[in-house]
Write a structure and sequence with these properties.
The protein is α/β, with parallel strands linked by helices. The chain is 39% helix and 14% strand. The strands form two sheets. It has a seven-stranded mixed β-sheet with strand order 1-7-6-5-4-2-3, with helices on both faces. A four-stranded antiparallel β-sheet has the order 8-9-11-10. Strand 4, helix 7 (166-176) and strand 5 form a beta-alpha-beta unit. Helix 1 (8-14) packs antiparallel against helix 10. The longest helix is centred in the last third of the chain and has 20 residues, at 257-276. It binds pyridoxal-5'-phosphate. Pyridoxal-5'-phosphate binds at residues 85-87, 90, 111, 113, 154, 158, 183, 185-186, 205, 207-208, 217, 219. It catalyses: O-succinyl-L-homoserine + hydrogen sulfide = L-homocysteine + succinate.
């Protein structure tokens, strides 16, 4: 099998659904809710899973299968299931793995909606969550209980761009017989493959760099076959599946993931390096800057540093707000991983109502700005941020 394995870019382009009788070059869009059977026996065998085929698009669909196959190849995963959004992937994965009375250990800096699941909905199902601080990974073991099911983390984190050591997390999980579930959205499968470092399941919001152009929502969970089988059974019953249209768009996007992400990372490193030299910037965080506290770990587990840069403007909340208002070209938006550079100031916008301790735990300081570096010419991105800082 090894010699059949192609390079990342080639797999992304050459993994395709079977050609139809029309000999099309580009994969068609299979907008169909159902599929037909030759006779009662074929239908019986298909529903009994004696025959592998598409039955109904809540279960599977050729476009969705192609998208999932690509992500599996990219992540080195055995199987996967695609969802309508990243949060559908996160929720369905949790709902499949957890029973009432279970316990989860999670990094405190996780995506806002994921944190909302832990705090608003887990209690009603009697599921408990304990948090470890990004800088106190040595605390994790003291949080583990007899009913702990998995450790959950994102790396690099949002919005603080901190880096967690995947191998170290995996060693703890193996020792305590826990699953390791990683949201790999910020890195994309091109930059980082958590399964290589011991993760059991990897989740992506495909809405971000996978789409890369701010058009469609999507999510995917990949990993161990037997776990994905459970996630599939839960999902085909509950209906969070990805639409064929979004899968078609996303599978096309994956063809250019490597070349796009290379350029995103090149621009982000240039911007981060520039910001480090600006007198109004207190600090800059970017995984591939030597000044990043986890630079060595980032180098070990990531191909490049990603497209998110965080920095602190001198002057706290007011300065952050003034900076945001002075931005001319870049977009103020909650999305990230777009061709367009997006700037946010969490303390005065998305996290304005969040308690100070929660903000601190999530790695958000008063003057912190998060930039999702896009694909405009880097000189124009730098120029816009420079004039806003000045
Ligand atoms: C955006 C995001 C999600 C949620 O994805 P949606 O597609 O918006 O539902 C989950 N995790 C991370 C890290 C994200 O950035």
């Amino acid at each position: 099998m090894k010699e059949n394995k192609k390079h990342f870019e080639t797999e992304a382009i050459r993994t395709q659904s079977e050609t139809t009788q029309f000999s099309e070059h580009s994969v068609p869009l299979y907008l169909t809710s159902g599929f037909v059977f030759d006779d009662a026996e074929e239908m019986r065998a298909s529903f009994a899973e004696e025959k592998q085929r598409d039955l109904y698009s809540r279960y599977s669909n050729p476009n969705v299968n192609e998208f999932v196959d690509k992500v599996c190849l990219m992540e080195g995963a055995e199987a996967g299931f695609a969802f309508a959004s990243g949060m559908a992937a996160v929720f369905s994965t949790f709902a499949t793995l957890l029973n009432a009375g279970d316990h989860v250990v999670s990094c405190s800096s996780v995506f806002g909606a994921t944190h909302g699941l832990f705090t608003k909905y887990f209690p009603k199902w009697n599921i408990e969550c304990s948090y470890f601080n990004i800088n106190e990974v040595e605390d994790i073991e003291s949080l583990i209980k007899p009913n702990t099911k998995f450790i959950y983390a994102e790396t690099p984190t949002n919005p603080g761009v901190d880096v967690l050591d995947l191998e170290a997390l995996s060693i703890i999980c193996k020792k305590h017989n826990l699953l390791l579930v990683i949201d790999n959205c910020f890195a994309t499968p091109y930059l980082q493959n958590p399964i290589k470092f011991g993760a059991d399941l990897v989740i992506h919001s495909a809405t971000k760099l996978m789409d890369g152009q701010g058009r469609v929502l999507g999510g995917v969970t990949v990993g161990k076959k037997e776990l994905i089988r459970e996630i599939y059974l839960f999902s085909r019953l509950t209906g969070p599946s990805m639409s064929p249209f979004n899968a078609w768009v996303l599978s096309k996007s994956l063809e250019t993931l490597a070349i796009r992400v290379d350029k995103h990372c090149e621009n982000a490193l240039k911007l981060a390096t520039y910001l480090e030299s600006h007198p109004k910037v207190k600090w800059v965080k970017y995984p591939f800057l030597k000044s990043h506290p986890k630079y060595d770990i980032a180098k070990k587990q990531m191909r490049l540093g990603g497209n998110i840069v965080a920095f602190e403007v001198e002057g706290g909340i007011e300065a952050g707000r003034t900076f945001l208002d002075a931005i001319k070209m870049c977009s103020l938006s909650a999305n990230l991983g777009d061709t367009r550079t997006i700037v946010t100031h969490p303390a005065s916008t998305t996290h304005a109502k969040v308690e100070p301790e929660v903000k601190a735990a999530a790695g958000i300081s008063d003057g912190m700005v998060r930039v999702s570096v896009g694909l405009e010419h880097v000189d124009d991105i730098i120029k816009d941020l420079k004039q806003a800082l000045d």
